[in-house]
Amino acid sequence: MTYSYFCPCPRGLEAALAEEITEIGQGSSTLKVHNQVPGGVHCSGSLSDSYRLNLHSRIASRVLLRMGQRGYTNENDIYDLTLEQPWEEWFGLGHTIRVDLTAIKSPLKSLEFTTLKIKDAVCDRFRDLYQERPSVNTRTPDMRIVGFLDAHNYTIYLDTSGEALFKRGWRQETGDAPLRENLAAGLLRVSGWTPGTILFDPMCGSGTILVEAAQILAGIPPGANRVFGFEKFLGFKAAEWQAIKAEVKPNALPRTPTLFGSDISGDMIVMTRNNLRNAGIQFDVPLKQIEAQEIKPPSGIPGIMLTNPPYGERIGVRGDSSQPADELTTSFYHAFSTTLKQRFPGWKVFLFTADLSVPKLLRLKEARKTPFFNGALECRLFRFDMVAGFNRRPEATPKSS
């Protein structure tokens, strides 16, 4: 049987996710990519394809199984469509449930009331059949039911993932506002990094970018060490799940390092080492405690620098706390820019940031800027192609007298 799926992802990564699903589909004759929409990708396949997607997708936030879709005018229409779905074929009275609802341009006045109507419909379906209803557990539910409303249509999904897919299971510690794992994986893909290419994160924080790259290099699927919602489905096919996991073949470990990281904070370096170990990485990822302005290329071969620069207090961890934050940031970027221009010719430098003035602060002209959203926060991935000599923005180039 063929099912319809929707895989949400961080906004800006839809094309990268579609490309990734196509690659995952090479191991399946039934998984097909359909259309991209803001915030995700529609695809279809067998039930075991949802197992495959959950195990292998680094970019998707979840894998949602579509139960039904219809136009609506009021909350009763939403209740009716939800009540029609054969929930009892997927889970039983002993399973706990949670309902989440998102909406874009919906005319309905109260999403809270509509969420309650969806929950009532699911429970009423069971009450009509068995004179009992499943319990609600908003913290650790067995089953997550997800509704989506646009201006005209209502779609109801059953979540096959359980916990969000960016929760890989390896992260024991985080720094301030860590980059989500699926966003880091998407940035790696968009940057064009591939295993074997030199990768350097000079402001690695808790190491999210490095851990994602290291798992890709090692051939460790992102879902290798976690459990999923589909494992509690009544129709769960344990043998098929074991067969899909058995298809995974680890890559040969690299003999010489190609991944490198550094950070101003020694605590962050320790955190990164711990996260790499928890993620099953058994090869050397050299890490160094150093200010980003002082870095040197970790390899004689130019590569890709990909980093999520901190701002404010993190930049000034060992700086002069008496300076205003904006002055500190300006002086940091000026010094970092000099380092890039003088020491990193031939490198492609990618900075992911919510500060859209970074190119101006660096006094560099970006080769490309790609818009993303980190949650609701608008960000950019700026690419700078470092060449020998000046790479300045035109207005920053000294004028001849």
Description:
The protein is of the alpha/beta class and 401 residues long. It has 10 helices and 14 strands. The protein has helices at residues 14-24, 47-56, 75-84, 111-130, 181-191, 208-218, 238-246, 266-278, 325-343, 358-362, and strands at 3-8, 32-37, 40-45, 64-71, 97-103, 143-149, 153-159, 199-201, 259-263, 287-289, 304-307, 348-353, 368-374, 377-385. The strands form 2 sheets. It has a 7-stranded mixed β-sheet with strand order 2-3-1-4-7-6-5. A 7-stranded mixed β-sheet has the order 10-9-8-11-12-14-13, with helices on one face. Strand 11 (304-307), helix 9 and strand 12 (348-353) form a beta-alpha-beta unit. The protein is globular and about 70 Å long. The N and C termini lie far apart (75 Å).
Based on secondary structure, the structural category is alpha/beta
Largest sheet: 7 strands, mixed
**Termini, distance in Å?**
75 Å
- The number of helical runs is 10
Strand order of the largest sheet: 2-3-1-4-7-6-5
Question: What's the quick description here?
Answer:
The chain is of the alpha/beta class and 401 residues long.
Produce the secondary structure layout.
Elements (H helix, E strand, L loop, with lengths): L2 E6 L5 H11 L7 E6 L2 E6 L1 H10 L7 E8 L3 H10 L12 E7 L7 H20 L12 E7 L3 E7 L21 H11 L7 E3 L6 H11 L19 H9 L12 E5 L2 H13 L8 E3 L14 E4 L17 H19 L4 E6 L4 H5 L5 E7 L2 E9 L16
Parallel strand pairs: 5-6, 8-9, 8-11, 9-10, 11-12
Antiparallel strand pairs: 1-3, 1-4, 2-3, 4-7, 6-7, 12-14, 13-14
Helix pairs in contact: 2-7, 3-4, 5-6
